[in-house]
Design a protein that fits this description.
This protein has 4 helices and 2 strands.
């Protein structure tokens, strides 16, 4: 379930341009949503475990390890896509969500 709890909204603009509405989502909320989305999905609990490990690396300020675990997560999702417990649509959503986190934290090769 996706709600707006924890998000921040506001507006930004430049001296010579119009203001634009924006919404910021904390990285911790993105990880929490991803974990919620993979609970009981895929083979065993390995997808959820990868999200937990990536979150722990992020909390420890270990960017390279966080990025590596998110890539491993994406690889597993891709490998399981279309199989018994992971529909192609859900797999695409999970890969997009993991990519959004990788972009937000500045992973190389996103």
């Amino acid at each position: 379930m996706r709600g707006d709890a924890g998000q921040v909204t506001g507006s930004v603009g430049t001296v010579d341009g119009p203001e634009h509405c924006v919404r910021w989502t904390p990285i911790s909320l993105l990880f929490a949503r991803l974990l919620d989305d993979v609970t009981d999905v895929g083979p065993g609990k390995s997808l959820a475990q990868k999200v937990r490990i990536a979150t722990a690396y992020y909390d420890a300020n270990d960017g390279p390890a966080t990025c590596a675990m998110l890539r491993a997560f994406g690889n597993e999702v891709k490998a399981q896509s279309g199989k018994k417990k992971l529909s192609r649509d859900l797999a695409q959503q999970l890969m997009n969500d993991a990519r959004a986190i990788r972009v937000a934290i500045g992973c190389k090769g996103v």
